[in-house]
């Protein structure tokens, strides 16, 4: 065992003449088999003190499996070794061992208890593991306030977590993880490690900045962070070094200096990735498919918008600007306060009376952003998840044609590159990104007339994104209209014919043609143009 005195805590790299730093975490030859399938094969990497280490890879490449091994949730196959701050750790880890070592996790589902308060969630470990006969709430309250203010997080400790915004929840989960490793560091005097498993997909740009400043403050104290993300720009901004997995094996490692966008993508995908460019030039005039007037919801003020036949319309803005409500209001999944919709020149219908059933009958489909809560059923097989909305078409002569269902599921899985492509597997056995592919395939397969999307490629890797974009474009070319709400400017710039930018509940800018760039969209989101009250569109930016 090596003591803390050997360690350099000032930064991620060793300087000439400085004592050789010990890795905080070092794993060698970690493998994991599920049934007959190898999810991980001889994975080895090190995380140095004060380092942000990116763990990247396509959907299903084994990142979460590795995280779950480090959390003691999965036992690895025999043969792997692990050291933490130079000490050999015997595998498998027992549940809770990670805490003793000085590790903390923020999983994709955040692991907060919604019915408890900010304080109770933040102080959960000390509250449940302490030996005191009673809880001194004023001490706990002080500790919670200190933790929140350390990270400049303006939250009321007594607020229930289910009343927080998704951003506040994510930041709270991260503060809790940082507090846990700090508590352990106070005892051991050695650096800790926080593992962030895709914490950013639902964070707006300002939330990501806040998260990154939290990450920097933890690495400045000498502890380390493993950062898992599919966002290459974020990875390049925050990480000091990167390990890339491909199909469960080591695809390679990069230092910050070596990590260009192209080098990372090539290592993840295994080849150069060519984006299919949006047709250049000005806006294309299309017949209107759906005209929506005076639509309002919780945050959305009365707004008018339309989508053309075969058009991909993007909606974006800062968090709370109201754009994210639109797909749900149009589909009737959230109650509209006002509004009408006219489809294909037909009769005007009240949005306030539209139910999801009626919307489906009109040829609408909605892919919600909350993959775990509202989109798929984790406990059902992939085949059932694929055909839930239209299972009746497999019912013939009093029998369910299971074989036909599985056959179609298999070919859909192949088309959307679902891995593993086994329709009998439960949705929960798929990696996050592969589960999202199943849900996109479900709706695309029904050839809807209007596809409503909320953050469609959340958690989806760079290679698969291109496939989804190509599938959306192909369907749009055949006449499907798409409304896509997303906080990802790059994604919108790549697929949309037109983007509406929302501010304070109203549409403030419309971007078309060559003005539709990642930078143009981001700028428009941050522009403080005051929205007009009756005529919502205040500017149209075209080439
Ligand atoms: N409990 C399980 N049972 C069977 N197979 C599993 C289980 N958990 C994961 N797998 C499989 O292991 C492989 C790796 O999955 P993992 O979730 O680690 O991928 P990932 O890199 O985290 O992907 P994503 O970016 O989509 O989250 C996948 O093929 C997945 O289907």
Automatic annotation (TrEMBL):
Residues 1-13 have a biased composition (Polar residues). Residues 1-21 are annotated as: Disordered. It comes from the Bacteria. Keywords: ATP-binding, Nucleotide-binding, Repeat, Sugar transport, Transport. The keyword Metal-binding does not apply. InterPro entries: AAA+_ATPase (IPR003593), ABC_carbohydrate_import_ATPase (IPR050107), ABC_transporter-like_ATP-bd (IPR003439), ABC_transporter-like_CS (IPR017871), P-loop_NTPase (IPR027417). One of its GO terms (molecular function) is ATP hydrolysis activity. Residues 25-272, 268-529 form the ABC transporter domain. SMART domains: AAA (SM00382). The keyword Transport applies. Belongs to the ABC transporter superfamily. This is ABC transporter ATP-binding protein. It comes from Devosia psychrophila. The lineage of its organism: Bacteria, Pseudomonadati, Pseudomonadota, Alphaproteobacteria, Hyphomicrobiales.
